[in-house]
Fold these 2 entries.
Entry 1:
Amino acid sequence: MFLYNLTLQRATGISFAIHGNFSGTKQQEIVVSRGKILELLRPDPNTGKVHTLLTVEVFGVIRSLMAFRLTGGTKDYIVVGSDSGRIVILEYQPSKNMFEKIHQETFGKSGCRRIVPGQFLAVDPKGRAVMISAIEKQKLVYILNRDAAARLTISSPLEAHKANTLVYHVVGVDVGFENPMFACLEMDYEEADNDPTGEAAANTQQTLTFYELDLGLNHVVRKYSEPLEEHGNFLITVPGGSDGPSGVLICSENYITYKNFGDQPDIRCPIPRRRNDLDDPERGMIFVCSATHKTKSMFFFLAQTEQGDIFKITLETDEDMVTEIRLKYFDTVPVAAAMCVLKTGFLFVASEFGNHYLYQIAHLGDDDEEPEFSSAMPLEEGDTFFFQPRPLKNLVLVDELDSLSPILFCQIADLANEDTPQLYVACGRGPRSSLRVLRHGLEVSEMAVSELPGNPNAVWTVRRHIEDEFDAYIIVSFVNATLVLSIGETVEEVTDSGFLGTTPTLSCSLLGDDALVQVYPDGIRHIRADKRVNEWKTPGKKTIVKCAVNQRQVVIALTGGELVYFEMDPVCYFIIHYVFTSLNGVLLRTVLDPVTGDLSDTRTRYLGSRPVKLFRVRMQGQEAVLAMSSRSWLSYSYQSRFHLTPLSYETLEFASGFASEQCPEGIVAISTNTLRILALEKLGAVFNQVAFPLQYTPRKFVIHPESNNLIIIETDHNAYTEATKAQRKQQMAEEMVEAAGEDERELAAEMAAAFLNENLPESIFGAPKAGNGQWASVIRVMNPIQGNTLDLVQLEQNEAAFSVAVCRFSNTGDDWYVLVGVAKDLILNPRSVAGGFVYTYKLVNNGEKLEFLHKTPVEEVPAAIAPFQGRVLIGVGKLLRVYDLGKKKLLRKCENKHIANYISGIQTIGHRVIVSDVQESFIWVRYKRNENQLIIFADDTYPRWVTTASLLDYDTVAGADKFGNICVVRLPPNTNDEVDEDPTGNKALWDRGLLNGASQKAEVIMNYHVGETVLSLQKTTLIPGGSESLVYTTLSGGIGILVPFTSHEDHDFFQHVEMHLRSEHPPLCGRDHLSFRSYYFPVKNVIDGDLCEQFNSMEPNKQKNVSEELDRTPPEVSKKLEDIRTRYAF
Amino acid sequence: MSFKREGDDWSQLNVLKKRRVGDLLASYIPEDEALMLRDGRFACAICPHRPVLDTLAMLTAHRAGKKHLSSLQLFYGKKQPGKGMDQSPRQQNELRPSETKAEAPLLTQTRLTTQSALHRAPYYNSCCRRKYRPETPRPSVSHSPLPPPEVEPESGKITREPMPGVGPQAKEPATVSSSAPMSPTRRRVLDHYLTLRSSGWIPDGQGRWVKDENVEFDSDEEEPPDLPLD
């Protein structure tokens, strides 16, 4: 079996975001890293929409990202620290739309290792040096400069190593043009390591260390080191030189501290906390990320706490001495992994989980009633400031980027009866989680819908002048009339346009520079800019049946088979690169040679049951084709790949491009008796999504096969249930009243009432953090089409649902039951559990309501449940048990105690049970009905930390592990299920050891490193009539498929493509592709389609070289790449 | 690390070769004459004391032993009492070539054995396999509704002796013939038997059912459910 890996949707979670002028123009762009993907985003300052310009998969783990600019330069470069053991400097080339690798310097082994640099990057704010640091010991400094031709040069590395030292964060200190300086949060553990009493370990302090790069001596010195009182988690550089006082801000638990050299005393300010917070008051508060805004005259920092509250931090100075830190509550946004403040006044928030946001900073929060907290205000040690969180005041949301990350679970089924299956994806975390339904198609935003007096036949838009940016008229043709609408602030009907309104229109267009032409059945009307009208009438009784119009020519077909050709001045020649034709619902795309007129490289796609109509539109400044059959499709080029994507919208009949001030790249279309103005904003997205909010992190769900309802279990750690929350709130309100003095009683009661009524949405402000070992869970029955909750069962505080199954029992007939495995008082580290329960519910009301039946106590966490031969198999910790439905509880009927660690999943087929262990891969168990025994008969030879598994056939299982690998293992054909327990009875003596694996072993069919933790696997078909593929979803929000090759030729071809690309187009961040795909297990029998598809983004001469090696032409290669994708997916 | 053999020690190589061939030939042991245990060891199903042997080689050595051979006679004498002269499939195999060709019995025999040792298909597949033994008349069931316990409708494959304590009539091997399909009543009885076994009831040998102490039952469940009537 050979498989081909294809990514359907790339990861959407963001790990780093940096901003700068990467294309060298005035416009600021954002570069984000999504684990193994580097992406360039450009927020449009006019519309506020974020466009993706470039996405590159780097086949390595991006561990740090920094932007830097040489002194006096105007263009920012990107420095990437990765697991490649190399430092890579990239430059964005706007003309080619690609990242170019300028420097790649090797310094160590590959992989994410303790002492190989790559984890932290810091640049000198003046762009003279960059420091790359490991988690421990090693730090290297590279000096950056220009050569005579103004090209960027990089020096050999200077070492700043210190053994036995852990690094927490590194920043470049802004010292103006003095020697570059780097500040480091470090901890020296040497003493603690050598002291067996543990006393030194308890007293070890974190230090703030400054490293100076002496440019004269070409040497790095450890300049100064100072122990810190609090344990810091990150550093913020304070502008220096002529812009500010220099130094660093240390963010630590509960405090933010300013430090600098010389006489500067430390300035320390507590981090304010929310008033009347339900959180544990003893819990420390930290800042998690920050952004700096600096102009010529001022600077400030925005820092976000782990609750999502953003504070604006300013520094008061007195002659270059900082005297005061001031904090002011700014706004609350979802907790971010990174934030960027752009010069245009936008704040980009890359959320830790869920969708990312672009906000406009409407106010700087300078002149409002919001209290400002200052380090100069006297406070007791341990006391802090309080503030009241509120809805957005200074920020205005302008754009939202969908992100599925994290995907916890996914099932693919056609529950909505749409022919094409939908993906039901449980994603998000905590109160921001959601169930999303993904359908293949482009999301359409409706800008306007207006009813028309009748059913129109066609619609066009025309500009008034060739140089106009926007369209002037919309022309709508009816059976016997034509309606002309003018486009301005609003769209209104006009009669003075010069168009003939009393007849239907066949076509209209701009003619020449500023004239318009209208073709109607009885003639052609030429309308000049000054509204003078020339008319040509058809001779006799002939009418025009068809026409073709461009800016200079008009061709008409008359009844009776006559063609008439009109032209303006000498025809200027016109190149069409592609010719699209349509036949009975099939779209053909073919290349027209402008010289010879040959047609070549034809690609066909079936679009729908109706004949296809084609319309030319513009999308992101490029030509695109809208094709309309029973479904509408858009064919466009996006990041050097052709996309043909259906629109997720109702059937349209006719369309035309539309450009106005409000909507520069829209579509005007007609559908029955309505005129619609549509915009397609999410180009490049394969799926359009509908999201239904959930309360806690969804863990799993099952589909009730009769009603198609979903039964979802949602569980959060460090959370309160609704009941506990209400109780705590009540308690706090009472305390408030009690604490007040006699005369304040009334006021306190009022405040308490206000507090009880206050309701901040948890999806924005976060849920209160209840502390370690506190769990909250719900079981939800949901209609996946409407998204409405049909039933909701709240579990008690500290009951955590981990598994769910819907099944029937053979002893109870046709009733459906829902079983939920719940852990009680689970503490994750050090692990302890008070036991568990299996809740049994009966599904009543056509699968809409859960009726509680009973609760079965078990000893450990029931982490997996699977229906099995009219009963259920439950994995209770490491015990595999068969349970039957009893009257007062589930009855344990059979047990196997030989699973190694913890059962994380159960699959069944026939008498076989395939158990996935959390650490020890798969174990095949046979149930012997005759003896009522579960006997292990085979297992795997590799230790895989299985997260999910899917059966491919009777002998074959596909599984994924937490390190991001997918494998397929198969039992050899001569495997014997009929193994027996030892009949001599001395098994207790011999079978006790855990190393005593099964005698029969599975064979590895395929191994592949995806690079993101895979949490769901399913064998399914994604397109109607397509072949089956293995679909996986990843924690970072990616969706991919593995498809089998159907012929040896194909396999051979793609193997060669992959081989050539590995050498001709090596990954961007310096990691070797083969070794990345073999990160944990040597890659076996899988060809990486993501690498093969990079063929399209290679330079043309390299494309030619590679395709010549393959005895083909570049279009043939890219056609093959497209074919294999469309055969299985989109 | 490499598993490639190093050196040119021919005697060692020959030892290995011999062991390999021995392994290949040893695997030609009728399935019902040995049990494969879940830890990869083997138990001899012929000898009444069920000796457990660590490797195939040891099992082969055991099978050549005097004790085993005498048990073998006893076993087949008991297993198919009606057929008297019947031999084990292996003995039959050994017999056949000598009947057909007497000139080079050893050669023929070796060839046959190697053929079957290297023969890789059709493979064992528990999913679709149905192997039935020729029908023997079943003694009438006297006082108990118990069918023989070894029948599994899905696999139909029997490699075990019945469990001790099962009634004498259960000692009979499964007697389902592929030519005569099971009657519905019989199938129901069988199903019922398996349902009871899998829900934790154990026949006590006197025709009654007792509860397995490791299995949970509803508190009001004193007697096993009766055979469902339809």
Entry 2:
Amino acid sequence: MTWSATARGAHQPDNTAFTQQRLPAWQPLLSASIALPLFFCAGLAFIGLGLGLYYSSNGIKELEYDYTGDPGTGNCSVCAAAGQGRALPLPCSCAWYFSLPELFQGPVYLYYELTNFYQNNRRYGVSRDDAQLSGLPSALRHPVNECAPYQRSAAGLPIAPCGAIANSLFNDSFSLWHQRQPGGPYVKVPLDRSGIAWWTDYHVKFRNPPLVNGSLALAFQGTAPPPNWHRPVYELSPDPNNTGFINQDFVVWMRTAALPTFRKLYARIRQGNYSAGLPRGAYRVNITYNYPVRAFGGHKLLIFSSISWMGGKNPFLGIAYLVVGSVCILTGFVMLVVYIRYQDQDDDDEE
Amino acid sequence: MTEALQWARYHWQRLIRGAPRDDDSRPYNYSSLLACGCKSSQTPKLAGKHRIVVPHLQPFKDEYEKFSGAYVNNRIRTTKYTLLNFVPRNLFEQFHRKEKKYIDQCWKDVTVGDFIRLSCNEVIPADMVLLFSTDPDGICHIETSGLDGESNLKQRQVVRGYAEQDSEVDPEKFSSRIECESPNNDLSRFRGFLEHSNKERVGLSKENLLLRGCTIRNTEAVVGIVVYAGHETKAMLNNSGPRYKRSKLERRANTDVLWCVMLLVIMCLTGAVGHGIWLSRYEKMHFFNIPEPDGHTISPLLAGFYMFWTMIILLQVLIPISLYVSIEIVKLGQIYFIQSDVDFYNEKTDSTVQCRALNIAEDLGQIQYLFSDKTGTLTENKMVFRRCSVAGFDYCHEENARRLESYQVAVSEDEDFTDTVSSFLSNMAKPRAPSCRTVHNGPLGTKPSNHLAGSSFTLGSGEGASEVPHSRQAAFSSPIETDVIPDTRLLDKFSQITPRLFMPLDETIQNPPLETLYIIDFFIALAICNTVVVSAPNQPPQKIRHPSLRGLPIKSLEEVKSLFQRWSVRRSSSPSLNSGKEPSSGVPNAFVSRLPLFSRMKPASPVEEEVSQVCKSPQCSSSSACCTETEKQHSDAGLLNGKAESLPGQPLACNLCYEAESPDEAALVYAARAYQCTLQSRTPEQVMVDFAALGPLTFQLLHILPFDSVRKRMSVVVRHPLSNQVVVYTKGADSVIMELLSVASPDGASLEKQQLIIREKTQKHLDDYAKQGLRTLCIAKKVMSDTEYAEWLRNHFLAETSIDNREELLLESAMRLENKLTLLGATGIEDRLQEGVPESIEALHKAGIKIWMLTGDKQETAVNIAYACKLLEPDDKLFILNTQSKDACGMLMSTILKELQKKTQALPEQVSLSVDLLQPPVPQDSGLRAGLIITGKTLEFALQESLQKQFLELTSWCQAVVCCRATPLQKSEVVKLVRSHLQVMTLAIGDGANDVSMIQVADIGIGVSGQEGMQAVMASDFAVSQFKHLSKLLLVHGHWCYTRLSNMILYFFYKNVAYVNLLFWYQFFCGFSGTSMTDYWVLIFFNLLFTSAPPVIYGVLEKDVSAETLMQLPELYKSGQKSEAYLPHTFWITLLDAFYQSLVCFFVPYFTYQGSDIDIFAFGNPLNTAALFIILLHLVIESKSLTWIHLLVIIGSILSYFLFAIVFGAMCVTCNPPSNPYWIMQEHMLDPVFYLVCILTMSIALLPRFVYRVLQGSLFPSPILRAKHFDRLTPEERTKALKKWRGAGKMNQVTSKYANQSAGKSGRRPMPGPSAVFAMKSATSCAIEQGNLSLCETALDQGYSETKAFEMAGPSKGKES
């Protein structure tokens, strides 16, 4: 106790730097002279960064194709027209032909893109049950109320996976064929569809319910698939490590997109001869056209994209850095002018 | 309405707090002490601050048990405080029926019906009816300063029928019941009766009631029965508690909060409409318009309506609820720093600034008008006897003046002031002597006959006062007031006084020296014409009623004799002492009676006294030799001193204490005592005065006509013991007394002529005194024949006994008595300016605060004080409003206004035209400095509806306004008028009960905890101990508090808007569906944890300019007055900036991630992170000073954010449904784009503000920014820069200045200190005296030249020693 040692008055305040508000302080005095180097340094750094970003973004190739099937945009318009007005469109196939004049530098990622699709709509976004998806048996039978109206089927069975997000699972599928020589046969390009979801999602967050007698189907017994689904969840894929709740497409879909126009990874091309990228030649993408987007004015796109250290193609960052860097330099010059002019004045004042 | 008091224990709800009941069994445990330590619920927070040491719990318990055992049948424990005198104030004895004894209880445990026994100097714990007092007359003295601020003693009487009992009232046998009014707050009324068992009723009145909060004085012990306790006591009912004031800044902030609400509604409406439109496009789409569980979808209209409320929930952070919490925390921090400022600490009173209102600290930074009381606020309210004029001769008391001035120095140097006093006394050839306490330790001090000295009360020593914690010093008895150094010239004349003068009155001496008689009468009047109560501090008065006459045991007489013999050599050289009439008994008497004087002033030995006598006597030829010899011998005379002073009877005198109704009276009595005319005792029948050469004189007190404000004078009628005549001594205001003097009759007797001359001279002296700011009083006397007196008495008796219009009759009767007076002289009492007042006033003036002085004093005194404290400058133009009618008042005001307007119109043309362009003349800043003096009567007219405007307009032209003769009500009306009509921030400062209303009306009320009790402090928002603290409180803390809080509030608005808008912008991309891109835990914690501490720290610790600079440049205060930190447009600019920053913060990541596979929370993460950094860095840009605490908090905030995000992201797999940010932060931290986005966002968002601040710093710095540069300079550069600043400041207001320039320059130099001011003042006044000496002196003054020589020698000698 400090007070017991001193003989001063009982009410005398402590005379410390803190109580007397005399703590040593850094007192930034913002003025042109101080900010001048800062602006130039920051400007240069930003321009440097911007250039790097710009060029690496420019180096990324993208190839996209809108297969929504607007009339006159290819053979998918047939499917689009066929599916119009139906709640559950008929299975339909169409194809996208393209040719690459040169090597499409790998690794190449295949994305599908939906536009005008509000996955971030609040009522849509909350319509899921993470507990169910993590394989909790009780949650499997009793989906949360947020899933309503996709909580229980008309028969009263719990829907697995429940909710609007799962119900609207993207169900188009693509296969890529490569024609090495003109007129030659189309060779199927192997699409690596594993590892398209986040590792943690696939390994931790999404779990199948415990198998019953070694069978996933039995584990899901007593549940109903979402109304829009043609297959039960345990039949999403024949691969036992890719079916049920841990189907990669499903996991990817369940990570709801932030913006109404979004891409989702479909596959990576990195196997066999295609590990370096897509060699030049003609290609065909076979599209199983299931997913209706015309009702909400959306579009479906297929995108081949290479990738760099900064991810996909994005010129914005580079340009923004360049602009900000230039603005900084410019401000720096303004500061310089200010500094030179008003420094003189200050000197005058001093005298 | 009466309510019967049940005899049974009255269980009364404790509103204060539910203290544990078992406190009763452990009366001295810590918690009960705490509970006692804080007197009531008003200051509970202070409890923790008290440092209560509880030594030896166990021994006390043992002691207690021992006593309980020993006193089973003894109902009263009398020895309680011998062991435990460290908490006597809070504990008292209370009668417990069961245990049949008094036990110690806490205040809170007192219940109605308890018997309470209190000793002297204890505070009364509850309202109780007095049943017993140790005083034989059944009187109990109480001091009511805690209630009404009056520090005089009041008498209370034991209930009729109980006074006659000689033994203490026996609670066991008390079987009567009391009926009284139900609890009310009327302090001046109490009605009830006490009904004995035989149905006999005794009325109870206010005179029988002891009120809670008063202090028992001069009465050994009292017993009473509690009638009101706790919250029912009159004192508590009178205390409405601290008023809740809202600060101007908070009112401003509240309107802006309303704007925020508006903004919120607009945003929510946008959301609702947007959602409706969006949904109408997808009405059929079950993707977006998710059906209800029952299958049907809601219409877009309804969905829009729902969305409105959803949005309100989502965006409600916009309403800064946390702002209010933060404001409170910041205010607490600010208050903490104000209270712990060492500069506010006053060592003398061991008190510092006390913030009673916690929520208006920032108003201190915006004060525009200051209303100050004079007495006790600007002045010390220590009446110091300065000068007197007797029989037309002015005695300027040079030595005394010098003592006063260096007293101040001594105090400021924190030295034991006895050194100083003694150095003065050594000027008078009186070397230093030990104080009373050393006497007590002296060889004879332990004698049983001397036990009273054991309670050594060292009046002469400041530290002695602090060592007696439980007894406040008697009122008006600080050494500065009590020690008066006599004027040597006057002492000379005193030496001529011998008893012979009176004995044969007109036979032996043909020509009685009239002046000497005047002097004698003058001092007798000073000593007896008052209502002073004589007491020893720890002693009931009756014990010292006849101290020196009765209480002289033979033994001590012998000692005196032996002492005399020892010093007889020197004694024989003193003719004045030889001339005593009785050789054996009279001399010791006179000797002893003179002793107290010196031992009181400064304990001295007879040696010194003799020496002084010797040296002063003009006949002493070998005086200088004598002096030096004694001085040499004195150094080893310590033992003798001890002996001499421990003479019985003498310690009593040493402890004599005068308790007076007004400080003036006490000052006069102390002054008289300095001239060895000591008021020894006072009873209703007689007054005993110990007069130097005449010995003790006992005046038969025939009558006292007390002071009243109509007569403005008081009189005593006594029978003079020497002449045996009836004499009336009158003391009063000069204006009144001068009119009552006997008119010179035409026959022109020499006596009357002389009286005329005296009158003229005295009037001149009075004017002179008033010019120096002294309070003047005239002393007059009248000799009556017995028949005259008898006749008057008969009439007076009739008046006293009449029932109808008794007051008028009494007044008439007094008029009959107080006429044809003979003027004896006049006194000048100084109410000294407090230390540092002129400097503070000057600084506050410079800070743009208009200062009004509102005082009840008369005009001359007020104006003088106004000049002395620099409220008015010598070259100010003074307008005096003193009219008798409303019309005249209006006329006068309009003429003054016209004159002022004419002058200001003329001025700018004269000065320069170029300046006009720079600064258009504003009436307030124009060159004319004017002061307005208004008297109470005129003020009444001016405050009337029709003249209000004119009055305010007039005052707006004046730098200073002095209202004199103002009543408390007028004071508050003035404040109210200015506050409501001019829409300005007002501050009222005062110290007395008469300032309470003013303090409460003003925006900020400041109480000066001075001499006049606690009432002003209780009503105030802040309490300071001295006026000078006000300048730092306003200029530094006010400025800081205001700037800090306003900046913090603005920052809070910014923070909330900037963050919430991120959510809002997102609504445009999610169909206005109310989705947040952030997990709601992060959303909650963002405001609650991550960004809450930095603004609070900023609000508490921000320091835009250092305290030194703020004190040196009071002009900086003006920014607060103009609310520059927080104007309406600042709010909107802040909001705009927030909008910009949020736009940047949203759209940079938006464009970055547009069209990518980013998911909702992964999109929100960089937004949050960037927003956090933007918000924190924004604060750094705005901060003017950053300490390690700032950095700690900012870094802590960032770390806590990341820690939370990482831990939450890792742990929360399925928690927090429906979705959670699982593993997102981890993903992002490995992603370079995340960092790039954050950096880019921060740069773009903060760039504009940063650039603005930089440009502001270089191109158009505010005065505050410019002043901030000073903090970086070295001291030399700093003084140079300050000079330059002031030069520039003057250039800006050239319009105002050519007359003022020199004054301003000199004023801005660091002040030489108040002592120098006093020195100059006293020097000049004395110089005047020297010049007039030839006029003053007459042939009577034969020893003048020697005296003068002595005066010259005195100071130099003082320097040597």
